[in-house]
């Protein structure tokens, strides 16, 4: 069978694409390992669609082998990348192998940077702070909105596999540059919220009071709040931010440090809940 | 123990197990405390208490993300276990933090173990592919989600087996300054996520916006949603003006290129 016949006979249907998209987005990090990270999930997700492209057993095996290689990116973005590589494999067959590998490797890093910031950092921070405060009052509305949004995102992610397939490598590449600007713009919104979070979410207060004869002065309301509201939270944020510069201070270690400070503060009566 | 309690126990363990599978793939409820907490509240029959606990852990989690294969404290698991113990024993939010926080921190270790085991599974799948045993390869992939679900199901199972009453007994034996200290830590811990968040983001480039957000909140007491909207306004303005600049630069470059082509 010549290649021409293969491409003249498009076997991949919308249903195949949707299936591959949902398989990938379901498995994602569920086969995560430190050696090839998302590689096995990619191979597993693409197995049915690749079988359609490669009826020949050896070609199919080689294609799967290729996808077992190291891969890691945000699922939203890699949906598009893998859609595009599927189109390449359908068009060029086994010859596409090198191009598929290099497209995956060259795009997964930059697109993950953009995708992770949007999907795992900015969005959960903004919706999380709003719904978190609602939940503190016993109001489930924020949680419900978040849940519905996530269901919509699922369909978007699956759809993006199709988008990657139909629009191909060009769009994926050019979208990359536009996404960088989009992430920057979104960061502005994120950082405004971060400023607000420092003042409201981080809670450190001291019960200490000074006695000058008959006059007593509460350190918190009499001194610190007069200098600046939320002064202690701001200083604590600065400290953690600086500590994180140091590779030795992993987030887990800093969490333990904060717990130790809090326990000591509680024991000596320097901090209050 | 009533049959309803047994049913609740089972559902809580299943919820904890499914949470990781969902977080690793579907991301419908993921490990976000408010969503997971809401479901825990529905199972335990006390939505209000569960939501208050979930809200507390949600604020601690802000900015915490497990990026690029890194591991982070599991505040979702902390919410499930914390709310379970607090509701079952009638103890409040302090108990939820004292139980949930350590469990959420310990779960990180289990994630590392699960990923190491998954390495063997990956090799097995690869070998099966080479031997053209594709049916087996595709079937054994399901061991992955099962393995990862254990990472949160096992700690929850242990808490359920040990029994919330026993947990309550231990909590009562702990001195007050310790539980108070953990509550203080609960108030301070959101700082870790916020610090991490600032590390992912272009803080130096957009420093003014942090200051604006801080002042609006600390001095003027504007609610988070209001500040998010103002932030959106600023980012909208930034995006449109920068996109125009990029477009101009591109058309300029295109014109230059065309010019060169004509020279040839």
Automatic annotation (TrEMBL), chain A:
What is the top-level taxon of the source organism? Bacteria
Membrane-traversing stretches: 111-135, 141-158, 179-202, 253-270
InterPro entries for the chain:
GatZ_KbaZ_carbometab, PTS_IID_man
A single GO cellular-component term from the record reads: plasma membrane
- Signal sequence interval, chain numbering: none
What name has this protein been given in UniProt? PTS family mannose fructose sorbose porter component IID
**Which keywords fit this entry according to its UniProt record?**
Membrane, Transmembrane, Transmembrane helix
Organism encoding this protein = Liquorilactobacillus satsumensis DSM 16230 = JCM 12392
Q: Which Pfam families does this UniProt record tie to the protein?
A: EIID-AGA (PF03613)
Question: Some GO term, biological process aspect, for this entry: which one?
Answer: phosphoenolpyruvate-dependent sugar phosphotransferase system
Keyword flag Transmembrane: yes
UniProtKB/TrEMBL annotation, chain B:
What are its GO biological-process terms?
Answer: phosphoenolpyruvate-dependent sugar phosphotransferase system
Places the protein is found: Cell membrane
The protein's superkingdom reads Bacteria
**Keyword hit for Lipid metabolism:** no
* Main localization (coarse): membrane
Any one Gene Ontology cellular component term annotated for this protein: plasma membrane
The record's InterPro entries line, in alphabetical order, gives: GatZ_KbaZ_carbometab (IPR050303), PTS_IIC_man (IPR004700)
Its record classes its membrane topology as:
Multi-pass membrane protein
Q: Which UniProt keywords apply?
A: Cell membrane, Membrane, Phosphotransferase system, Sugar transport, Transmembrane, Transmembrane helix, Transport
Q: Which PROSITE patterns is this protein grouped with?
A: PTS_EIIC_TYPE_4
TM region positions: 12-35, 103-122, 142-162, 174-197, 209-239
Q: What is this protein called?
A: PTS family mannose fructose sorbose porter component IIC
């Amino acid at each position: 069978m010549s290649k021409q016949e293969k491409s003249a006979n498009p076997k991949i249907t919308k249903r195949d694409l949707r299936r591959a998209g949902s398989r990938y987005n379901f498995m994602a990090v569920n086969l995560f390992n430190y050696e090839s990270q998302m590689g096995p999930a990619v191979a597993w997700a693409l197995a049915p669609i690749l079988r359609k492209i490669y009826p020949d057993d050896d070609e199919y095996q080689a294609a799967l082998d290729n996808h077992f290689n190291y891969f890691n990116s945000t699922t939203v973005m890699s949906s598009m990348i893998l859609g595009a590589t599927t189109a390449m494999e359908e068009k060029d067959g086994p010859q596409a192998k090198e191009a598929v590998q290099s497209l995956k490797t060259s795009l997964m890093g930059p697109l993950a940077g953009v995708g992770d910031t949007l999907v795992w950092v900015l969005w959960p921070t903004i919706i999380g702070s709003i719904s978190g405060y609602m939940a503190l009052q016993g109001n489930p509305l924020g949680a419900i909105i978040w849940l519905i949004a996530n269901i919509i995102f699922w369909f978007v992610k699956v759809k993006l596999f199709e988008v990657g397939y139909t629009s191909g490598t060009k769009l994926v590449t050019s979208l990359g540059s536009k996404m960088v600007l989009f992430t920057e713009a979104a960061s502005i919104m994120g950082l405004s919220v971060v400023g607000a979070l420092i003042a409201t979410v981080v809670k450190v207060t001291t019960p200490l009071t000074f006695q000058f004869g008959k006059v007593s002065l509460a350190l918190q309301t009499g001194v610190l709040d007069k200098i600046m509201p939320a002064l202690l939270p701001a200083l604590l944020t600065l400290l953690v931010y600086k500590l994180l510069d140091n590779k030795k201070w992993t987030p887990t270690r800093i969490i333990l440090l904060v717990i130790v400070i809090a326990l000591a503060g509680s024991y000596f009566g320097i901090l209050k809940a | 123990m009533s049959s309803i309690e047994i049913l609740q126990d089972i559902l809580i363990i299943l919820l904890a197990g499914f949470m990781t599978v969902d977080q690793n793939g579907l991301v419908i409820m993921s490990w976000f405390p408010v969503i997971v907490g809401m479901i825990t509240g529905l199972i335990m029959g006390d939505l209000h208490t569960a939501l208050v606990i979930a809200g507390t852990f949600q604020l601690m989690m802000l900015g915490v993300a497990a990026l690029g294969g890194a591991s982070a404290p599991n505040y979702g698991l902390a919410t499930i276990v914390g709310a379970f113990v607090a509701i079952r024993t009638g103890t409040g939010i302090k108990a939820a933090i004292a139980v949930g926080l350590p469990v959420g921190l310990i779960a990180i270790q289990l994630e590392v173990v699960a990923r190491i085991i998954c390495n063997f599974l990956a090799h097995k799948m690869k070998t099966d592919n080479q031997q053209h045993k594709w049916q087996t390869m595709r079937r054994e992939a399901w061991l992955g989600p099962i393995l990862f679900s254990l990472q949160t199901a096992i700690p929850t199972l242990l808490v359920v087996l040990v029994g919330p009453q026993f947990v309550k007994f231990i909590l009562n034996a702990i001195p007050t300054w310790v539980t108070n200290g953990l509550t203080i830590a609960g108030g301070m811990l959101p700082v870790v996520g916020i610090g991490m968040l600032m590390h992912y983001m272009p803080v130096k480039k957009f420093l003014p916006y942090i200051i604006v957000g801080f002042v609006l909140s600390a001095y003027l007491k504007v609610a988070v949603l209001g500040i998010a909207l103002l932030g959106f306004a600023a980012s909208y303005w930034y995006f449109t003006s920068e996109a125009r600049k990029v477009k101009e630069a591109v058309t300029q470059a295109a014109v230059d290129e065309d010019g060169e082509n004509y020279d040839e």
